[in-house]
Design goal:
Order of helices and strands: HHHEEHEEEHHH
Strand content: 5-15%
Distance between the termini: 44 Å
Number of domains: 2
Radius of gyration: 16 Å
Helix content: 40-55%
Shape: globular
Number of helices: 7
Length: about 170
Amino acid sequence: MVMRSQTSLSPGDIPFALRLAAHTGEQYESLASALSSSTSSAHRAVGRLEEAGLLIPGQRRANREALKEFLVHGARYAFPAVRGPETRGVPTAWSAPGLEGALPQGPPVVWPSEHGRVRGEAVIPLSASVPDAARRDPWLYDMLALFDAIRLGQSRDRRIAAQLLERRLSASTL
């Protein structure tokens, strides 16, 4: 008897789950293109997300309740924020343009990127394609920035970011 191995989510799977929360059933090619990834990477990510219960199997549709629970309560432990030195990049967490005034402000934090125009403390993105994907999809950008606020923030910041993320995830379908 051949035993299957344990499936583990990758940090780069989170952008795929969020993209599918807003674009239910999106074709693999389009999904991969939106996230600057390969079609085979999209297939693998969807498979892992389905196995974890974060997507409905065979539908490329988010299991919204499970996804909200994971993002708010578990993902920051599975994918802790990795900080780096000050650099130029794309603002994230409380520094993201779509979240101005919604979250308590702190020193700027950025995803390092040659296309970024803001200087701040580096936060390594969940995957290398996140800054580019965020520039092309404002909703995804907001969601990834909220997730970073949950990963980086103090208790009050995390609570506010979690409420915003849950609200936006519940209301999303593009």
